[in-house]
Amino acid sequence: MSDSLPDQTAVDAHVASFERELAAAASARDAQSLRDRYLGRKNSIVASWMQQIGSAPPDQKKSIGRYANELKQAIEARWKQYEETSRDAAPAGGVDVTLPGRQPILGHRHPLTVVRDRMEEIFTRMGFTIVEGPEVEDEWHCFDALNMPAEHPARDMQDTLYLATPMPPFQAGDAMRTMLRTHTSSMQIRYMQTHEPPVRIVVPGKVYRKDDLDLTHTPNFTQMEGLVVGEGVSLADLKGTLLAWAREMFGERSRVRLRPSFFPYTEPSAEVDISCWSCDGAGCSMCKQSGWIEILGCGMVHPAVFEAVGYDPDKVSGFAFGMGMERVAMLKYGVDDIRLFYENDLRFLEQFPL
Ligand code: 2NL
Predict the structure, then answer these.
(1) Could you please report the per-residue DSSP string of 64-98?
(2) Running DSSP on this structure, what letter comes out for residue 99?
(3) What is the pLDDT of residues 23-43, one digit of tens each?
(4) Residue to probe by mutation, ligand 1, list 192, 201, 242, 263, most atoms within 8 Å of CB
(5) Does any ligand 1 atom lie closer than 6 A to the CB of residue 225?
């Protein structure tokens, strides 16, 4: 058709076929080469019409020039329209620099980190210092200093993960074995060895026990223990501290109750229940109709522990408590399987607050 004589019929026919082909273009690249076939500087239909002006008889030059310009403007107008609509539709293979940037996928705190951060915030406001310590320990800091003598069942190979390679200063064959700490209490011992009372610390961190996996056990879990030592520190201080924590963590209507229990490192010892935040103590499926939820263990520091670290049990007293943060997170968020915290499944992890 580029050979046909430029006239109104030829202009209309070219515009119509340009429109048809442009509508059928499969990609931005196809559309661009179509445009070049009609409007390009060389070998295009418009270019060949422009060339014909030069070789045409003088009386036809003007009308050929008019039709060539009319064709050029009509194709340009349709091309401009196409560019404007395809910008909104983001053509395949095209990059539109005017579009807003892609939202990067932001990371997300792990639910155990959410709970730990909240706990640290609460205890910091109550005047506690956050202390961390080694996960690889010796038996003295983990057991002996905590009033757990050699024959204590927790020291059994069945329950504790011992390391084959002793850490300095211990040597192979020494009575003192190297182990993964079974609670963070070993760090409270280290802290008392290096600090005089008063003491007010919380120690969060990973602990290890030789447990098999099930709904409520993993071989490592995250603990937070607290320790307060000073002159005249009482059981009332312990209960008041835990009540203040519970009201921050589970709501201001929370009440706490202590039930007698046993730990070698505290005397007296207690299990702590919090009034059910789901039914406010009336009884529901969450608290198994009891109105109370067991959450942690605590007690007054045993005099033997003070003697081990060089404190005088006649001068100072103190309380301690410990809890599993997985348990706190499971209760707070209604998670029924502890293993979910360690499987790194995004469908689980993305359900928690940022
Ligand atoms: C629990 C119970 C507890 C302690 C931890 C402690 C530490 C020192 C002295 C005395 Cl240095 N006690 N810690 C006391 C009572 C309970 O933890 O259920 N933990 C997961």
Answers:
(1) HHHHHHHHHHHHHHHHHHHHHHHHHH--TT---TT
(2) S
(3) 898 888 889 999 999 999 988
(4) 263
(5) yes
